[in-house]
Amino acid sequence: MAQHIYIFLISLFLLHAPCNAIRNNENFAAQTKKTKLIEIHLPNTKSPGSVLIKSNKIKTALDIALFAILGKSCNTNELNKLTNKDKEFLKQGLIAWDNDETISIPQSGYLGSGPCFAYYINQYEKFKERREEEAKEKIAYAIKLTSELLPYIPVDPVEETTIPLINNLQDAEIPMIGLTARDPIMTNGTLQSQLKRLNLDFTKTSPFKYKNEDHIASFFPVFNLGYYTDGWLFLKAQQNKGEALKRIITLYETFKGKLPTYIIFVDDLEKNVKDVQHAMQEIGIFCVGIVYTATQPYVEAFDARKLRHELFRRAGKIAKQLDKMENPSDGSSSDESLHMNLKTKEECEKLLKMLDLMSVALLPPTDSPLVSHPSSPHKQKRLKEF
Q1: What is the rounded CA–CA span in Å between residue 378 and residue 385?
Q2: Are 253 and 275 in contact (CB under 8 A)?
Q3: Which residues does the chain have with pLDDT short of 50?
Q4: pTM, whole model, 2 decimals?
Q5: CATH number of the domain where residue 238 is located
């Protein structure tokens, strides 16, 4: 194995894999970059070894990851051509996927995106020392509002090839789970309203599929991890993904009778990937980490002003759509630019109210009447209306 990885190291440093624009999003245009091999740690008596890859092309990254695991060239689109021995070996591992900016991305704007959720956390961290309870209340309120909005925020796969590649891996019966930093309150909106539309289903190859998944899910609250369902673990805010995955692996061993032979972890944040690799080293599992950079320009372009502007822009368009519904003679009531799947007057009115509340919730604590006066009649009226 060590010899294969050494050859892999020499060849990969010479590899250049240019990538075209990933998808059409008004907020970013993915630039052509090179796939890079960042780090390799060879297996030895004290460590199982690891490989860290940075790429903005998911197929290239997965091909390299499988090369590192099998020690031979491998095409993710042609897994059926592998030998039976290699196929069986791949079934003994586990692939874990992040969601936001890795598998999916909003069709338009930032609402419901990873940078949006990160902004909530940053606001809490910024104000918690001076106004911890108020900041905690505000982040919980913003997350609750976002969870209600998720059914109206359709997503696209980051690359057109993403879902077909995942399907190929599932057809090869490679165990797979999702590991997302979305709050557990967002479970239904994420799985039923967003990922289901992408025809993404991790229950098919969940490592707990052939056991009682409800039973395995019952362990997660005990471990204070979050909420597990349908092949996805929804972590609580600021949970370390490496520690979370290590505990999942403990359960995997309990139900499968052994540890996975390898781990592939895909995430757009390098910190998360390194956290997972460190955790896997502690329990002796070879780990290939993929830092997926396709959406990096989109993430880097985020700022709070854009998010607030987006809320006002969406509200304005919904108001226009509502006018069209009330006055059909003025033209069609559909507005594809919204990307929110609004079909009825009631939905428009509900969304207008939620966007209004969200615009207040995103203000810093010192600027928001919802937080500055936590027991005020104004706040109670707004919460009651919601």
Answers
A1: 11
A2: no
A3: 1-34, 210-211, 222, 333-337, 365-386
A4: 0.79
A5: 3.40.50.1000
